[in-house]
Amino acid sequence: MILAGIDIGTLTCRLLIASLSSDRQLTELHAERRLLRLGEGVDRHRTLHPAAMARAVETLKAWRQMVGAYRVDREIAVATSAVRDASNREEFLALVKRETGFSVEIISGEEEARRTLLGIRSGLPSGTGDVLALDIGGGSTECIVDRLGEVPIIRSFDIGAVRLTERCLTHDPPTPREVEAAKDLVRASMEKVKPILQHLDGTVCVGTAGTITTIAAMVQRLRRLDHAHIHLYRLNLPDIVQLERELLSTTQVERRGMPGLESGREEVIVAGVIILNTVMNSLGLSNCLVSDYGLREGLLLDVAKRVRHDGPSNTTDCPVVAAPVHEP
Asked: Which residue ranges form the domains of the chain, and what is each CATH number?
């Protein structure tokens, strides 16, 4: 079976086309991601801008041809924070359907977290036990505690790299007062989340999505995004703190070309590092294992489960792939 999954995020649009074996192992056939910043201005105006919608539609048109070329058996497209918060979301969904043929499902933060966890689990080393997953997106951040044999605890709060940038970090580089206001906003959200997550002793912190994989690439000074050096790399808190200091001393123009920084993230990476640093400090975490698997893989595993009518998906029956952990 060949499957295609599209994740329409606040900052990034992602495509994954993969084959699914009889034992539910995914093999990537084609993957793309484009930084479209669909959610630009949504936090303030609660609407998707026409230019941003046009960028998304043009990308999805190209991906429609790609999906057709692979003769995909099943496809799924989902939209997350920016689209679910926009008052003109139905207009956007109708436009996408009319221009590209994709029927887009708007998923809640909790549903996004559930499917992300499916993807994360599929890429963790064999024998990994309890997990705290962190997914820092453009518009929201999801915290997921997955203890084997228990129902996952999922909490989503509306602070992501794009949203925090637009709310707090208006100068270039941000002023100390803006940085402290940004951290206060994240701390306030974490104070509400922490009691719900309960004790985290013995859990492995795993971070996913573009912000965290970019931080891993920057800490390692990688010249290009390399799955082999990013997936299962262990980020230590002192390295994150040091990267935050470096970024806060530079302008957006100066950040361009920094090793590991993907073009288009120059403005929002500061907020992303602030979120990760503040969340880890709030939860008393000293390190974070990086996962290059996430929502895209989870979408495909979930749709495969539905196709086979095996009942609702859960987080403990995903395939696991043994792989080494990369230390700094």
From this structure: 2-107 (3.30.420.40), 120-291 (3.30.420.150)
